[in-house]
Amino acid sequence: xxxxxxxxxxxxxxxxxxxxxxxxxxxxxxxxxxxxxxxxxxxxxxxxxxxxxxxxxxxxxxxxxxxxxxxxxxxxxxxxxxxxxxxxxxxxxxxxxxxxxxxxxxxxxxxxxxxxxxxxxxxxxxxxxxxxxxxxxxxxxxxxxxxxxxxxxxxxxxxxxxxxxxxxxxxxxxxxxxxxxxxxxxxxxxxxxxxxxxxxxxxxxxxxxxxxxxxxxxxxxxxxxxxxxxxxxxxxxxxxxxxxxxxxxxxxxxxxxxxxxxxxxxxxxxxxxxxxxxxxxxxxxxxxxxxxxxxxxxxxxxxxxxxxxxxxxxx
Length: 315
Hints:
Blueprint: E1 2-10, E2 21-31, E3 36-44, E4 50-58, E5 65-68, E6 86-95, E7 98-108, E8 114-123, E9 131-132, E10 149-157, E11 160-174, E12 177-189, E13 195-203, E14 210-221, E15 224-233, E16 246-252, E17 258-260, E18 283-290, E19 293-299, E20 308-314
Antiparallel strand pairs: 1-20, 2-3, 3-4, 4-5, 6-7, 7-8, 8-9, 10-11, 11-12, 12-13, 14-15, 15-16, 16-17, 18-19, 19-20
């Protein structure tokens, strides 16, 4: 089995002040009753601040956009709060009559480039509008995890809320620029709000050169948990395609202990054709089953600056 790339879906036209560039970290939600897929993502204004947005596409043909959003799903947080510099969606879960949108809150720092925390917004109208659960984050750094947390993948499984999340383990100065190193850890919850973080590593660095493992996307396929994620190296990953993001794959029998299989056909590489929208990097996968098909929404060049597209898993 392998992924068949279907091409670019969406790139902002730059005609909205709060959405000039980027369609970053696509988060797909299949709305069966409407036969559409709502794709949440992060877009940016002229100051580079992230805002949550969405489009809706046909379930049978995701290239066909049937609805655009007119306003940010959330405004920036109040001055001094964890998300006053940016709001970036990373996962959506249907919880009875509500939808939980887990997101990343951004702060700008002066010793390092930025700081992230995990936030939650809740929708009571099927995911069209959201309100913050609180002005503070669900979690931030603590004595076990002294740096920051980022993207979350959350599923409700066997009566337990399970979360595979980015955990930063260090910062380094490389070529005069502060660069983070992060991998994926695992946490559990009884209600999706209060999380028990024991520092359990799900996907760890494979060597000293690997520096960024991010955006887990987990599906339970019968008795096997399957995860897609993106990974990169430390040096020159912004400009050197050989060090930039690729989409990897791992399997687990319990959702906690994982075996990486980045060389399998379930992984995803860059397009070989030069100047394609995903010819330099591929990252931030979101895998979803829709009407008997397994689809992957993902970003390409420029960490979402070239928009997002999708691929379909073929036999």
